[in-house]
Q: What sequence folds into this?
């Protein structure tokens, strides 16, 4: 497995739905926030943001969390393809799994929008080497 990052987040009122349970979009936002933090820590954020659109999202919600609950969001690189990257996302509360899933993005050329291979200077840090 490649690089990883962990964030602690507290469920805010705006993160909940009409039932008072976290809204599904909160997980996507937290996953992308963790991705940004990972790229910042790896020193590659200026080279990757704006050129890594999502192509697939898949999440399973295992248990509800509510306003003011504190959770841990863990994002790790599961697979680094030629031009794609799969992030694995796990969320837990007090050590209990709350949600799990994956997010796949593709590195593109900023001008043409065509996919392009990960250059070695990005591949190394993302793969954890």
A:
């Amino acid at each position: 497995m490649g690089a990883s990052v962990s964030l602690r987040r507290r469920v805010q009122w705006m993160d909940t739905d009409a039932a008072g349970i976290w809204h599904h979009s909160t997980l996507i936002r937290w996953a992308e926030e963790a991705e940004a933090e990972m790229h910042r820590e790896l020193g590659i954020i200026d080279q990757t943001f704006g050129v890594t659109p999502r192509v697939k999202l898949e999440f399973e919600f295992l248990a509800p969390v509510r306003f003011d609950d504190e959770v841990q969001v863990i994002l790790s690189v599961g697979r680094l393809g030629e031009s794609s990257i799969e992030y694995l996302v796990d969320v837990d509360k007090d050590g209990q799994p709350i949600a799990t899933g994956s997010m796949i993005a593709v590195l593109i050329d900023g001008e043409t929008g065509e996919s392009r291979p990960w250059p070695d200077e990005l591949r190394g840090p993302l793969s954890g080497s």
Q: What stands out?
A: The CA atoms of residues 52 and 107 lie 5 Å apart. The mean pLDDT is 96.
